[in-house]
């Protein structure tokens, strides 16, 4: 039991980072991680140590997040007043603008592309591990990543890398 809890505790920072990237709201992310940890601990008997506990926790977190999104669609969208910018806010520095533009572009991605991109790009997971967490074949994950990256290039006006451009 103690070893299980130690492994779970070691994953908390990564779970919080991923949850914050998914929700874009620190409070919602903390609630999501707490729900994930409660579910994992209460159902620790379901964990089969045939893979890393991190992947199992990400799967739980994603399922809770997806269930929350489905419930939110039924109840309508809530707007966090703290996230609404003041009209007289001065312009940010160029680096902050580029980062904000990328964050907005990621938020516009379909959920399955966003989940895949964040697991690989933000969390640094191997493609196969991310595919296992999302319960999709490796080819599907690769396709989602390619579509997400292409959408981000279009949204941010970033040209494709030279070796990826098609020659006419």
Automatic annotation (TrEMBL):
InterPro entries: PhyR_sigma2 (IPR053866), RNA_pol_sigma-70-like (IPR039425), RNA_pol_sigma-70_dom (IPR014284), RNA_pol_sigma70_r4_t2 (IPR013249), RNA_pol_sigma_r2 (IPR013325), RNA_pol_sigma_r3/r4-like (IPR013324), WH-like_DNA-bd_sf (IPR036388). GO terms for molecular function: DNA binding; sigma factor activity. It comes from the Bacteria. GO terms for biological process: DNA-templated transcription initiation. It holds the Pfam family Sigma70_r4_2. Belongs to the sigma-70 factor family. ECF subfamily. NCBIfam families: sigma70-ECF (TIGR02937). This is RNA polymerase sigma factor. It comes from Devosia epidermidihirudinis. The lineage of its organism: Bacteria, Pseudomonadati, Pseudomonadota, Alphaproteobacteria, Hyphomicrobiales.
């Amino acid at each position: 039991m103690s070893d299980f809890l130690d492994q779970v505790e070691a994953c908390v920072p990564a779970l919080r980072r991923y949850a914050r990237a998914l929700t874009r709201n620190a409070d919602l992310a903390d609630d999501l991680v707490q729900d994930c940890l409660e579910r994992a601990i209460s159902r620790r008997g379901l964990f089969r140590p045939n893979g890393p506990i991190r992947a199992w926790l990400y799967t739980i977190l994603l399922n809770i997040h997806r269930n929350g999104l489905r419930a939110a669609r039924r109840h309508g969208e809530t707007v966090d007043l703290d996230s609404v910018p003041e009209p007289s806010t001065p312009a940010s520095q160029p680096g902050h603008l580029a980062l904000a533009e990328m964050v907005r572009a990621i938020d516009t991605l379909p959920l399955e592309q966003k989940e895949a991109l964040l697991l690989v790009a933000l969390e640094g997971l191997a493609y196969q591990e991310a595919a296992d967490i999302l319960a999709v074949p490796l080819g599907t994950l690769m396709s989602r990543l390619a579509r997400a990256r292409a959408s981000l290039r279009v949204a941010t006006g970033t040209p494709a890398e030279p070796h990826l451009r098609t020659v006419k």
